[in-house]
Amino acid sequence: MTTHGKYCDFNFYVTSLDAENGYAATEPMSSGLSLLEAVSEFYKRCGRYPSNTNIMLGVEYTTSRRDLEPAGKGAADLLQRVNGHLHLSRDYEQSAVLSQEGLIANNAVSFLKQQSERFYEISDKYTAECARFISDNLPEITDDPEKFFELISRAAEEYGIERCKAVLANEYRLANQQLLTPETADYLANISADQNDRFRINSPPIVLDMLTAAIRKVEGLSESETKLFRSGLVNGDREQVQSQSTQVKTEIEHHASLEEHGLVSDDQWSM
Q1: Mean pLDDT taken over the chain
Q2: Does 266 fall in a domain?
Q3: How many domains does the chain have?
Q4: 108 in a structural domain
Q5: Which contacts qualify for 163-166: CB closer than 8 Å, 24 or more apart?
Q6: How far apart are the first and last CA of the chain?
Q7: At what angle do helices 161-174 and 182-189 cross, to 10 degrees?
Q8: Together in a domain, 108 and 127
Q9: Per residue of the chain (271 residues), what is the pLDDT tens digit?
Q10: Predicted confidence (pLDDT) per residue in 50-90, tens digit
Q11: Which residues contact 34 (CB under 8 A, 6 or more apart)?
């Protein structure tokens, strides 16, 4: 969504970089967003990635005012999460265009300041929604590990893997820990989480064991492997899913190549 301002046309972006992996992008940048869309994506990524992932919300612009910006375009971060802490960036002040564009320098910056002040409140709201999503879907699950994996995959896709881990760690701290397997206890004890009744899922220990096994499995799969599992194109344990995914991804990429040359119809599948 492009907004037409007095000095420039602009939209917003969100990007995330892994600080422990040479600042490689964790996923493609989301661009062309409205401010509300960007804020929503920013919060989703905050829940999706741990604190060592730096997440930035910024503005991209084009302008006909070459006297202000000779290149005719530019970009600047407005809100950043670095090492788990939020910062309002003042990079826009270095741009003669953005610093004079009231829709950015006043409106957008003021809105993001309000959002940053409510960050933990809003983050807790999403975590509570994640807990409710898991809790509401538990009655439909038997003791099938793949059903637990599917539930956690859906929750992680919607609310972020880090929020799912926080929900289970909260449950662990409020549960009878002696009834949990050592693997579950060791895993959840090392996740930082505050006790909060809003994040309860009220699961018996055996269910918490199954959920923990599922979340460890989700952590071990790539985004494309999880997508293939949820689609039903691959199945089994983690090793089986990863092995089958390699072949299926090759077939999908081959089919996509044939589509580009008009040799087969578009099946709407892509990696």
Answers
A1: 84
A2: no
A3: 3
A4: yes
A5: 163/47, 163/126, 163/127, 163/130, 164/130, 164/134, 164/215, 164/218, 165/191, 165/193, 165/215, 166/127, 166/191, 166/193, 166/199
A6: 25
A7: 110
A8: no
A9: 899 999 999 999 999 998 888 888 988 999 999 999 999 999 888 878 887 889 999 999 999 999 999 999 999 999 999 887 888 999 999 999 999 999 999 999 999 998 888 877 877 888 899 999 999 998 777 778 888 989 998 998 888 888 899 999 999 988 888 889 888 988 898 887 777 888 999 888 999 999 999 998 887 766 566 566 556 666 655 566 666 667 666 766 666 666 676 665 655 555 4
A10: 878 899 999 999 999 999 999 999 999 999 998 878 889 99
A11: 1, 3, 11, 12
8 Å CB contact between 33 and 12: yes
Strands (E), the chain: 3-4, 9-18, 24-25, 30-33, 53-62, 73-82, 85-88
Instruction: Establish if 230 belongs to a structural domain.
Output: yes
Strand partners, 16: 55
Can you read off the two tokens belonging to residue 132? Answer: 């409710």
- 148 and 229: one domain? no
SS3 54: strand
| Apex 19 CA angle, 113 and 83, nearest 5 | 40
| C-alpha to C-alpha distance for 41 and 31, rounded to whole angstroms | 10
CA-nearest of 39, 57, 203 to 126 is 39
Measured in residues, the chain has a length of 271
Distance (Å, whole) CA 184 – CA 228: 26
Q: Are 9 and 113 in the same domain?
A: yes
Query: Per the structure block, which two tokens stand in for 38?
Result: 């960007």
